[in-house]
Amino acid sequence: MNKEKFIDIALSNEIADLVIKNAKIVDVFNGRIIEGTVAISEDIIIGIGNYEGKAEYDANGAYLMPGFIDSHVHIESSMVTPAEYARVVIPKGVTTAICDPHEIANVCGIDGVKFMMDNARNVPLDFKFMLPSCVPAAPFEDAGAVFTAADTKEYLEKYDFLGLAEMMNYPGVLFKDGEVMTKISASNIVDGHAPGVSGKELSAYAGLGICSDHECTTPEEMEEKISAGMYALLRCGRMSREFTQMASKVNKYNASRVTFCTDDRNLSDIIESGTIQNCIVTANSVGMDIYDAIRAASLNAAQCYKLDKLGAIAPGYKADLVLATDICPKEIIAVWKSGVIAYDNAELKFKTPEVNKTSAIYESVNIAPFSKEELICEFSQDKPVISIEEGSLQTRKIYRNTKEGLSHLAVIERHKKTGKIGTCYVDNYGIKNGAIASCIGHDSHNVTVVGDSADDMAIAVNHLGKNGGIAVVSNGKLLAKLELPVAGLMSDKSANDVVAEHNAIDEAAKALDINPNLDPFMTLAFLSLPVIPELRLTARGLFDVTNFDFI
Q1: Measured between alpha carbons, how far is 398 from 401 in angstroms, rounded to an integer?
Q2: What would you measure as the largest C-alpha separation in the chain, in angstroms?
Q3: Domains of the chain and any CATH numbers
Q4: Which of 104, 109, 245, 501 has its CA 20 to 30 A from that of 26?
Q5: 10 Å Cβ neighbour count for 177?
Q6: Three-state SS letters, 124-141
Q7: What single-letter DSSP state applies at residue 195?
Q8: What is the pLDDT of residues 331-343, one digit of tens each?
Q9: Which residues contact 5 (CB under 8 A, 6 or more apart)?
């Protein structure tokens, strides 16, 4: 819109395209409610006041707030494509998502990232893609692709990336690794990933311009990272329950440096309670000021990622809006994206494109022949065991005198048929009379299988086939399977179909006496991630994250 036209509409010399009247408007700058009419033309908010429009929407006294921004999300973890993901989260108020296609990049390289970007077009949600910085997640990982520093510079120049996604290789930063340093220098916006990094090491990490961290697990860590000039992205996914502890400690001094993100969230949870909507409601329930919570969900995220004129209802700002029955948005009535209504009274106002079924993203599971005996290891009191921490992504390294109550865990390389298999024991998973195999294994996404017998473990792995997914087996029989043909990470079906299939594998898993305090599949997916303390399993063996070395 040209400046002259904006002025004419703002002064009521011309009529706005749309007015939203009778709304309680959330003013995130002052922390107050303004009652009035919001004028919109094209995709821009013109002003708040006494306006007329070519079209009118009566808010009937409901609360109008800025569209929600998810400041860090892996769409792949929802197990649906970006376009289908938009159909699920737009009714929950999300109008912008800072996306890290790290998962599919580790399987299919730049072809996978391009698939995500192409599929995300033509839906009323801004997918702001970050270029994955760690492909593989660590230099010793067995992934399906490698992004070098030279690749990073080329892709940032060639494609429409907002910045560089989470720098997970924080030891590489501290050790001044040349490849890592070149990647960081290639972008003005660099996301962080530094669990437990503190003191002088945090100064070295944050001082390079790394703007954020979504791995804080305590209020003290949150405060230290904010003091270091970073934004704390408070994560409220399914696996990370530290959110409430940190949200309760947000105050008037540090609130401007806090945003909300989901990182990884189960699709059924998204459908039930949303993503950032859930963050606002949950944060407010533990005492976070509602205006601070809405700012964290909108303006703060926009400022963190240098998204100009986004995250507020004010003249000149983008018309991304959410209408809710209350200022704490438990129930959302309508959503506008760029001034166009995308959702209204339980009805989506847009269609999504079909999935482009390219060969680069299908049939991505390629494992070498293996024997069932290779999936289990001999027990030794001297060999550490992975102990799962309930409600956290972190694990502990423990030693046991007996294997009683422990489960077998194996990770199989699945990209290049190398035949690499890592094995160990895991505590607190509790599986009995069966096995679960999955090709979702953060972040290299090799095949991870857990069980109490080599026979069931091998059968579960073989049921994954070339397209992959998740298979649940008991006593030699397949109980349920969720097929994920898009890179072995996502389904090409509708969200409702995926939820139905996921419910089936969930019910099957319940029959195996798995610890009820765990999400059996999300827990399994993170046991192979060698960048979150303390102990993980990769296809190359047990990895001590604290000492950053194999055992």
Answers
A1: 10
A2: 82
A3: 67-308 (3.20.20.140), 372-550 (no CATH)
A4: 245
A5: 15
A6: CCEEEEEECCCCCCCCCC
A7: T
A8: 999 999 999 999 9
A9: 14, 41
